[in-house]
Each structure stands twice: as structure tokens, then as C-alpha cells.
Amino acid sequence: MYDELRPLLFSIAYRMVGSVSDAEDIVQEAYLRYHRATQDGTRIDSPKAYLSTIATRLAVDHLRLARVRREQYIGPWLPEPLLTDPAPDAAQHAETADSMSMAFLVLLESLSPVERAVFLLREVFDYPYHEIARIVDKTEENCRQLAVRARRRIAERRPRFDADRRQRDELMRRFLAACEEGDVDGLVRLLAEDVVFYGDGGGTGFGLPNPVHGRGRVSRLLQGFMRQVNQAGLTLVPVEVNGQPGAQCLTGDGRLVNVISIDVGDGLIQTVRSVINPAKLRHLAPLADLPALYGERPARD
Predict the structure, then answer these.
(1) pLDDT of residue 167
(2) Of 36, 117, 121, 243, whose Cβ has the fewest other Cβ atoms within 10 Å?
């Protein structure tokens, strides 16, 4: 049962809280509570329903506590990146890529914890309203209203990605090649005029205090990134990040510096996101010594 239901529970928890480590803790706690309930003689007709209820409620509680921390977060907040495998089924991949993308998870931050739970359970996981009502302890009518409100808010700002995975991957390949080769003109041609760069350093001094807007400013920022990559002997390795094209930046001995992902629309790069906050990368690989690579920075972005 653990192996069968864990992917579903993790998918719910991760989309709720935007953190791999916290989602894993939530899943583990849900199983512990399930085990205690069965040991106490509680009759559980549906382990899936019981565990998804516990995981969702734990995630809602987690978000209520996390909102204050995120309001005080230094610089742009991004979810912990999750490396995903390209699904062989195109329709399945498109659905996963959209609902797990960093852009989508950031957008979910505009919803209240309960709105987020209702929206995800209905729109992503296709739970019926009567079951959602039981999970979030609301009436079915109230859940329908919450879903409508959340759906409207998300639809107003939801990003639209190019559906052709080959084109997106090819654009990422050209982007990485331009960065590694120092091809400034080639890089500029890949960027949308209103491209935005987000750098999440979490107050370590290695991120950016604010998003960088516009092709000119972003291209200059990326030129500086190119120089750092070349001077430090770093390597950019293509990976899929939250269902979107991305890359890991690695040192010569395989230690992780940061993770980059891009959003592609109309054949151009619309958004670049870089997570360099070590606290958000520990689940992926051994980490590089950032002060040794880039020099000591003040403990702020």
C-alpha cells in the first residue's frame, strides 16, 4: 500500500506546500497516523481516502504557518525544484508539466490554504466535491464556491506554455550552448522582449533582491552568469525541472551550484528561474561551497 499510494500523497503535498522535504515529512506523518489508527482498532474502509485526507489537512496547517515566513522571505520566493522524468505519454506529460511547473506553484501562493486544497483536489486530482468537502471539513456547496473563485483567479494569471516538448527542449539546448560559449547575440535572440529573471537565494547573498525585467537587463545578467560559469569551470547539465526545460549547474567534482528552469511561449524564453538557496537544493545532490566559488557575500540578497 505504501508504494502504491505514496506517489499520489506526495503529489498532493508537494503541490500544496512547494517543498520536497516538507512534502516528504507530510507523507510520512500521514502514514504514521494511519498506522496508529489501525493499531487502535479504528476501522478504515478506504486507506486512500483516509491518507489523502490526513495529508491534505497537514499541508493546509503547514501553509498557514508558512505564509508568515514567506511574507518575510528575502528576495523572490520559488518552490524547491523537483527533477522530473519526461513521461512517454505526451498528454500525461503536458498535464504534469503544467500543474507542477514553478510558474503554477508560485501562482498558487495567491490562494488561501483551503482554496489551494480545494482547487488542486478538484482540478488536478479530479476528486468529487463530496469527497473534497469531507477532506477540508466544508460543505459541498462551499467547496464549489471556493473552486469557482480559485479557478477564476488562477485563469486570469495562468501562464501558457508552448506545448511542443521538442521545441522547448531545443530552445533550452540553444540557451545552454549560448551561455557556455559566451554567444551574447545568440542568447538575446532567444529571449522574449518582456522576459523576467527570478533568482531565489533566500537571503544567502547569492540570489537577487528583486526580479529582473526586460531583454536588455536579463541578457546583461546572463552575460555575468556566463563569465562565472566559465571562470569557475562549471558545467550546465540539461534536466527537466518541474516538468519544464531546465539545467543543473555543477562544479567539476559534481557538486550542485544552482538549478535553472525556463518557461517557453511563442517560441521564445519568457521566464528564467534560478534557485541557488542551498536549503532548497539539499535533496538533489551534494552542494557546492558558494563562498569558495564566488567569495563571501553579506547574508542578504
Answers:
(1) 87
(2) 36
Q: pTM of the predicted model, to two decimals?
A: 0.90
- Last-in-domain residue among 104, 136, 157: 157
Q: Closest by alpha carbon to 105, among 241, 285, 282, 268?
A: 241
d(CA 159, CA 142): 27
pLDDT tens digits, one per residue of 91-131:
454 556 678 899 999 999 999 999 999 999 999 999 999 99
Please check whether residues 212 and 241 belong to one and the same domain.
yes
Q: How confident is the model at residue 85 (pLDDT cuts 50, 70, 90)?
A: confident
Q: Which domain holds residue 205?
A: 165-294
Phi/psi of residue 259, each to 5°? -120, 135
Residue 278 lies in a domain: yes
Q: Output 112 or 70, whichever has higher pLDDT.
A: 112
Q: How many other CB atoms are there within 10 angstroms of residue 95's CB atom? A: 14
Q: Which of 125, 157, 189 is the last residue of a domain?
A: 157
Asked whether residue 271 is domain-assigned, the answer is yes
Q: List the grid coordinates of 223.
A: 552575460
pLDDT at 301: 47
- 237 forms beta bridges with 248
Cα dihedral sign, 236-11-8-94: negative
Q: Are residues 224 and 262 in the same domain?
A: yes
Integer Cα distance of 147 and 198 in angstroms = 29
Report how far apart the first and last C-alpha atoms of the chain are (Å, whole number).
44
* Residues 186 and 254 occupy one common structural domain: yes
